[in-house]
Amino acid sequence: MPLRMSDSLFNKHGGVVREDSAKSSRREPQKSSTRTDDRRAAEEEEEDDGPEYIPRRKAKNPMTKIGYAWMIGLPTGIITFILAKREVDKNRLKQLKVRQRMKRSNEGEYEGSRYRRHTEEVNMGR
């Protein structure tokens, strides 16, 4: 359907708002004896309420920014988690080795001269 200058209006975003003459003038439903014609007329009247918006340029998809955030954030989070886990495991291994060395040094027979001297002196004094 060709556009006439009176049929189109420009909105503030540069798009065209077209209101067809057939849509803008509300038609009175024709009196018919069947109910289906009445239903069709009522449906057409509901659909023909507003003007039709025709954009001049392609709209940007708002989900692209969210997609980029997921593309960057998910792998970064996974890599950060793996590196942190490695660091924790290294520290745990160091602590385990230190504990094992301490246990080994405490095992076996050794002379606790500090405590024996004290008990010998007490026994001699009697």
TrEMBL record:
* Keyword hit for Transmembrane: yes
- What InterPro entries is this protein classified in? DUF4748
The superkingdom listed in its UniProt entry is: Eukaryota
Q: Which UniProt keywords apply?
A: Membrane, Transmembrane, Transmembrane helix
- Give me the ranges of the annotated region Disordered: 1-60, 99-126
Please report a single Pfam family linked to this protein: DUF4748
> Which residue stretches does the UniProt record annotate as biased composition, category Basic and acidic residues?
16-42, 104-126
Q: What is this protein called?
A: DUF4748 domain-containing protein
